[in-house]
Amino acid sequence: MRRRCLIAGNWKMHKTISDSVTLARAISGGMADGVEVDMVICPPFTALSAVADVIKGTPVGLGAQNVHWEEKGAYTGEIAPVMLQDAGCRYAIVGHSERRQFFGESDQTVNQRAKAALKAGLIPIICVGETLQQREAGNTDQIVKTQVRGAYAGIDPQAALNTVIAYEPVWAIGTGKASNGPDADRVSGLIRNEMAALVGKETAEQIRILYGGSVKPENMAEFASQRNIDGALVGGASLDAQSFLAIAANAVKASVDKTE
After folding, report:
1. What is the CA 168 to chain-centroid distance, rounded?
2. Tens of pLDDT along 90-126?
3. Rounded distance, CA 16 to CA 18, Å?
4. Cβ atoms 115, 155 nearer than 8 A
5. pTM (2 decimals)?
6. Which of 15, 98, 141, 247 could form a cystine bridge with 19, CB 3.0-4.6 A?
7. % helix, strand, coil for the chain, step of 5
8. Could you tell me if 63 and 125 are in contact, meaning their C-beta atoms sit under 8 angstroms apart?
9. Residue 234's Cα: distance from chain center in Å?
């Protein structure tokens, strides 16, 4: 089946409010009419409301880079799902490898955040992926399967339909060393099979799986042409409007070509 292509830009800890507004305006204004792609941009928390105003009424969606599992409370430095909704968000990245590496995220907290996002009507983009050490030890499959099972524990099939999975091999993030299409598709297929075991084959076939890790215009078509890859979670290349738009255009073309 053909799944609608999704390209999400994770701006990480880059861009002031004014910089974010300028970039969001360039991206939303540069999108061609009628292109069948879901575009999402995830600026820093400080810029969410300002960016929401800029992209209102355009095809570009707004996402956050994290979300807490409680609705409110004494959680200094965290942000609640309702706050993200209030700022105009529809998506939230959950379990990014940088959160796991630097801020102690575990499969359990990823699961809690994903459930909280779903409860609030947000679409979680759930990140999974192996480190270089795990890959070289031959543990990629086991690590990824464990992360998928952990992230979706207690999430029923109907709710799972409102999620997105991003396969991001940690060794490829920000390194300039991307995976290749067939290898990324093999792991994405493994993820889809694991989801089939958790929520049923029919549901698993509808869930979009993105590739992330040194994605750029030059390699996007290779990934989007694969059966199990439905778009990308883009880091550095999403900080330049022309690059980000080119990634989306190349992804859509390759996605259409593989169904013809």
Report:
1. 9
2. 999 999 999 999 999 999 999 999 999 999 999 999 9
3. 6
4. yes
5. 0.96
6. 15
7. 50, 15, 35
8. yes
9. 8
